[in-house]
């Protein structure tokens, strides 16, 4: 793997730096005041759990059948459009190249992705489970081109307002590829990330989203739409925060490319490659404090101007909430 290898085509949305003097959304300060109410503080780095492990595969990798994992009844019962279930996206599998040592995210999301750099193909899954007999099942699965735009479209899915997008294949609640915006180990080791990052937040907007999101699981009326791009002030002097070298690499990407709101979470976090099952690479000694970015006050971030916000998304029972007072 070369140090400059990145996901998706060069002209992909994910790989475009933010233009100088990019317009800031009129509600940016409001969204940042809301973020400042986050009980867990500023920006966390997900690298040990609730993130995405990525395994390189090729023609020699064993192909394994991935079955459809049954949707829990509580999910079906809470859906607005009753009795829908999670399913794999159109054209996914059922045979997927999966290395013997592959391990899905050990936390609740159990994401995993497989990338064939030679043929330019990606398989990703949410809640992937390997059984004792070696067989795999997952709630969702998507298959797409590594050299494509890295964008799914509304027309790719038959989602009705109120659905979870997971009923239709995507493993991210915003309906984007799970590898989109992932900070990879080799990029940080090389000292430069050349694409937008992905982040998740608590106070995401209820049934509102914008490109590149195709959906949302946001809970809060008036919250930040999923798909929104947030930028760290490009003029900010990072040296004042005494960050490690790896954290500075991430921050420079946040200044140059920004980060995209892709999911809901119990906090605000960016995603670093999950190195589960990797005997040769570890974040230990690279980033010793996953909360290091919280040294940067939220006031140094801003939301870029929102365009074409779509009023649709997940509306399952109990989802809608009110924002905290700002």
Explain the overall architecture.
By secondary structure, the protein is mostly beta strands. It has one domain (13-322). It has helices spanning 28-35, 73-78, 185-190, 245-256, and strands at 43-46, 54-56, 63-68, 95-97, 112-116, 121-130, 136-145, 197-201, 204-209, 220-221, 224-226, 229-232, 259-264, 268-271, 301-303, 321-322.
Spatial order of strands in the largest sheet: 1-14-8-13-12-15
Shape: globular
Number of H- or I-type helical stretches:
4
Judged by helices, strands and strand pairing, the structural class is mainly beta
Q: Helices and strands, in N-to-C order?
A: HEEEHEEEEHEEEEEHEEEE
* Helix percentage: under 10%
Range of strand content? 15-25%
Largest sheet at a glance?
6 strands, mixed
How far the N terminus sits from the C terminus, by CA atoms, comes to 46 Å
> Low-confidence spans: pLDDT under 50, at least 5 residues?
none
Radius of gyration: 19 Å
- Output mean pLDDT: 95
| Quaternary assembly | single chain
Number of beta strands: 16
Number of domains: 1
């Amino acid at each position: 793997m070369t140090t400059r290898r990145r996901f998706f085509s060069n002209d992909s949305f994910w790989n475009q730096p933010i233009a100088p003097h990019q317009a800031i959304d009129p509600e940016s300060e409001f969204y940042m005041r809301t973020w400042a109410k986050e009980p867990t503080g500023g920006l966390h780095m997900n690298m040990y759990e609730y993130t995405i492990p990525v395994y390189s595969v090729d023609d020699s990798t064993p192909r394994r059948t991935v079955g459809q994992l049954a949707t829990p009844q509580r999910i079906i019962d809470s859906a607005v459009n009753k009795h829908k279930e999670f399913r794999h996206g159109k054209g996914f599998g059922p045979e997927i190249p999966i290395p013997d040592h592959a391990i899905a995210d050990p936390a609740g999301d159990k994401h995993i992705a497989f990338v064939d750099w030679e043929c330019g193909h990606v398989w990703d899954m949410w809640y992937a489970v390997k059984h004792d007999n070696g067989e795999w099942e997952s709630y969702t699965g998507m298959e797409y081109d590594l050299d494509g735009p890295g964008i799914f479209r509304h027309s790719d899915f038959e989602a009705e307002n109120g659905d979870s997008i997971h009923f239709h294949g995507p493993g991210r609640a915003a309906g984007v590829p799970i590898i989109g915006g992932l900070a990879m180990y080799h990029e940080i080791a090389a000292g430069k990330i050349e694409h937008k990052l992905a982040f998740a937040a608590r106070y995401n907007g209820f049934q509102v989203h914008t490109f590149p999101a195709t959906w949302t699981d946001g809970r809060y009326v008036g919250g930040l739409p999923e798909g929104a791009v947030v930028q760290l002030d490009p003029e900010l002097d990072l040296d004042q925060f005494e960050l490690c070298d790896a954290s500075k690499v991430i921050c420079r990407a946040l200044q140059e490319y920004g980060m995209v709101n892709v999911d809901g979470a119990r906090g605000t976090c960016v995603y670093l490659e999950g190195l589960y099952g990797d005997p040769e690479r570890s974040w230990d000694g690279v980033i010793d404090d996953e909360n290091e970015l919280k040294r940067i006050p939220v006031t140094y971030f801003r939301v870029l101007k929102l365009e074409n916000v779509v009023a649709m998304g997940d509306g399952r029972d109990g989802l809608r909430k009110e924002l905290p007072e700002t």
